[in-house]
Design goal:
By secondary structure, this protein is α/β, with parallel strands linked by helices. α3 packs across α7. The model has no long low-confidence stretch (mean pLDDT about 95). The radius of gyration is 18 Å and the shape is globular. The protein has two domains: about 55 residues, 2-Layer Sandwich (Nucleotidyltransferase, domain 5); about 120 residues, Nucleotidyltransferase, domain 5 (2-Layer Sandwich), CATH 3.30.420.40. The longest helix is centred in the C-terminal third of the chain and has 20 residues.
């Protein structure tokens, strides 16, 4: 069974072993004749693929106690993956969500790392730079590149740390492994959303058979 998490820029397709990351049009063409269960947060793509009878949108089957009406289906799936935890999905946006005893407590949304960098460039061309992945948070920077990198990473880390009490800390998403490296005892798992999808489908099926 193929599962797909369709984000704003890529399809993330899971075959039970590996995840294939593909741009929207390429994924639609490559998998159009295969059976696929998917969740989707990109409205235009959702409309484009709705007519494919081999593909099934299973977003309506996933729910978590405490969710709110406009909560993204990818966040629901992620929060379903574990009974307790702080969940950070670092992609085009960064979401931070808290779950205790399988009940959603709330969360927040930040720009993704690239969105942060683009915002500096809009302020001034002199601030156009790339993130320094080796920047240290142990001392103040003395270059513009490091100052921007420090400001982005330190602010994200501070917010995550503020939300983390005694729960495990989980990271996923394209920049998840990088952000996880700034925390002790954190776990990066790129399959968390798919684990949540499978768990949510199982709960939905169990509820229907009662």
């Amino acid at each position: 069974m193929l599962l797909a998490d369709i984000g704003n820029t890529h399809f993330h397709i899971y075959d039970g072993h590996t995840i294939n990351h593909l741009p929207h049009d390429e994924a639609i063409q490559r998998y159009k004749d295969k059976k696929l269960l998917y969740i989707c947060v990109h409205h235009d793509t959702a409309q484009k693929i709705a007519k494919n009878t081999k593909w099934s949108n299973i977003g309506g089957k996933l729910s978590i106690q405490g969710e709110y009406s406009t909560m993204g289906i990818d966040r629901k799936a992620l929060c379903l993956s574990k009974k307790n935890g702080v969940f950070v999905d670092a992609g085009s946006a960064i979401t931070i969500d808290v779950v205790r005893h399988s009940i959603y407590q709330g969360g927040c949304i930040l720009p993704g790392l690239q969105a942060y960098l683009q915002s500096f460039e809009r302020i001034s061309p002199a601030l156009k730079t790339q993130l320094n992945p080796n920047v240290t948070l142990k001392r103040l920077p003395t270059t513009t590149k490091d100052a921007i990198s420090y400001g982005i990473i330190a602010s994200i880390k501070a917010l995550i740390s503020n939300l983390k009490y005694h729960e495990p800390l989980y990271f996923t998403g394209g920049d998840g492994a990088f952000l996880a490296s700034f925390f002790k005892d954190s776990l990066y798992d790129e399959t968390l959303i798919f684990k949540g999808i499978l768990k949510g489908l199982k709960q939905h099926k169990k509820g229907k058979t009662r």
